[in-house]
Amino acid sequence: MAALTLARLTIREAARRKLLLALAILTLIVIGLTGWGFQHLSTITNPDGSQIPASELRLAVSQVLVLVEFMFSGVLALSAVVVASPAISSEIESGVALSMLARPVSRYQVVLGKWLGLGALIVIYVAATTTLELIVVRATTAYVPPGPVGLALYLSAEGIVIMSLTLLISTRLSGMTAGVISLVLFFLAWIGGIAGAIGQVFGSVGIKNAGTISQLLLPTDALWRGSVYELEPVLYRDVLGATTERAGNPFFVQSPPSVAYLGWAACWVVLIVSLTVWSLHRREV
Amino acid sequence: MTPDGTAAPPSADAAAVRTLELTKHYGASVALSGLTMVVPRGEVFGFLGPNGSGKTTAVKLLLGLSRPTGGEAWVLGRPAGDRQTRSRVGYLPELFRYQGWLSAAEVLGLHCRLAGVARSEWPGQISGALSTVGLTDHADAKVETFSKGMQQRLGLGVALLGNPELVILDEPTSALDPVGRADTRTIIRHLRERGCAVFLNSHLLGEVEQICDRAAVVADGHVLAIGRLDELLGRGGVRLRLTGLTDVGRAALARRGTLAEHDGWFVVDGVDAGAVPDLVADVVASGARVYAVEPVRQTLEERFLSLIEAEQARWQR
Ligand SMILES: Nc1ncnc2c1ncn2[C@@H]1O[C@H](COP(=O)(O)OP(=O)(O)OP(=O)(O)O)[C@@H](O)[C@H]1O
Ligand SMILES: [Mg+2]
């Protein structure tokens, strides 16, 4: 099937252009540094030299881990945008698309191929980074977050969401423009999520609704919150979940996204990919 | 221009390309207006026209890369853009690039896959295409290291994959050296021998004249002239260098065509090649001494320029 050929081609391009190598080296460096940091974190004591209680230490580790994963999710989202934004537009601009689209290949297969290839890259990146990071954290601090698999799934989903949006824009606008638009929307959704949580704490219906709408329009932030949830120690969630004090904190999450919301996120991706197919189908090259 | 009757049922249509009032607008600008033509199978068809006359537009419409604003087109008997038909068509775009990070052989392999060539045929197809376009020694070199001419050769190789029944070449020799141009002509002749139709967009009229069976001249998106090359170029004539031409001899020449004198040559226009021996015999019988007899023919370039000029004059009126 042509879509699989094109998916493989997308992955091969990432490899040939040394994207995979660059990401692998940078990831190893970052994980090495965080390992060193966690090692130190696990040996700190109170100012008077007494041991820090294990539960508090676990809390500290989990908080730092959330920040580290936040960094990884940011790198993932930015990379996904940078890689996806020229994926279709530059091939049309350069003339690579001309000879390929003149083949007996449907345009939906072209979109599906690109999407599958980029999606596979995202999943590979997330699987590799979270596995390595969690192994390092466990080795240095003995902490294992409650939902490592859920974490990887949420992070992958977040990457796939922003990649799909970028691919859609890439069928119509130049890579540069598509990338900028996607990033702006990504950060808007992030701020929207934070605003929504703050609105909830202060009982402002307007702000809370704005947050909800932004989460419906672009599910990146809500999925990121899902991965935060999977990283928090269960005890911490239970204790703090009772109070709403910290709901405005972007690095604390009370409850995971609802099943209904996850269903919506899946529909959202299907919708965006369908729009991408339609858009490329209408596009003249 | 009037369409020659109603459209034939597409699948019964044997023509390589048939268009009927094919029209393409880009916003307010008209790229192609009412193109009607037939390209028979197994022939080399030259599609000629000045810059911006709609040649590339027409090709893109035929391949379904863009959609017509009006009119219809069929390729190999199926509506233009039909997905399955595209597996029987080879295409070298005008402004193209191939994945620079692939090798020449990999690009050909990718297109074998996309064209639906049976896997067992890939090695033969790939090495065949490479040797036909003279890139065998560069099979494993990355395309990004290729010169423009080498890329165009590769593009030609890509268009040849999968034994197409129609090959569409949009200015295939624009970046080629004289050797490459001669090679391309040879390739086109081989395609015709195999029964493959070739649709050739070109400005290089000398080249078209050498290889095309038929040609169409387009300007501003419509056909000015279309037909077999010899029809398009007119019947031609003959010129003679002679002395001692009597009135009888002069009358013998004038009887065969329109007579004129240029630079000491007697030029008779509108003479069929088959009538030349009789004409010479008559002139000799009249007592004139013949030093040279040469066929004269309007070149395609002259014909092209006169068509375009006439068209411009028509617009100015
Ligand atoms: N994508 C487009 N958008 C707007 N106008 C276009 C587009 N493509 C072509 N045109 C216009 O259509 C006309 C025909 O263009 P086309 O490329 O078909 O010419 P051409 O005969 O191939 O010319 P050349 O000999 O220079 O290759 C031109 O006036 C061009 O400006
Ligand atoms: Mg052109």
Description:
The complex is a heterodimer of chains A (285) and B (317). Chain A has 285 residues and is mainly alpha-helical. Chain A has one domain (2-17, 54-132, 144-282). Chain A is built from twelve helices and no strands. Chain A starts with a helix and ends with a helix. Chain B is of the alpha/beta class. Chain B folds into two domains: 15-232, Rossmann fold (3-Layer(aba) Sandwich), CATH 3.40.50.300; 235-297, Alpha-Beta Plaits. Chain B has helices at residues 55-62, 104-115, 122-132, 148-160, 178-193, 205-211, 229-232, 247-256, 276-285, 300-316, and strands at 17-26, 29-39, 44-48, 70-75, 78-79, 89-92, 166-170, 197-202, 214-219, 222-228, 237-243, 258-262, 265-269, 289-296. Chain B has a six-stranded mixed sheet, sandwiched between helices. In chain B, helix 2 (104-115) packs across helix 3, helix 3 packs across helix 4 (148-160) and helix 8 packs antiparallel against helix 9 (276-285). The radius of gyration of chain B is 23 Å and the shape is elongated. The model of chain B is unreliable at 1-12 (pLDDT under 50). The complex binds adenosine-5'-triphosphate and magnesium ion. Magnesium ion is lined by residues 55-56, 94, 170 of chain B. The site of magnesium ion has 4 residues of chain B, from helix 1.
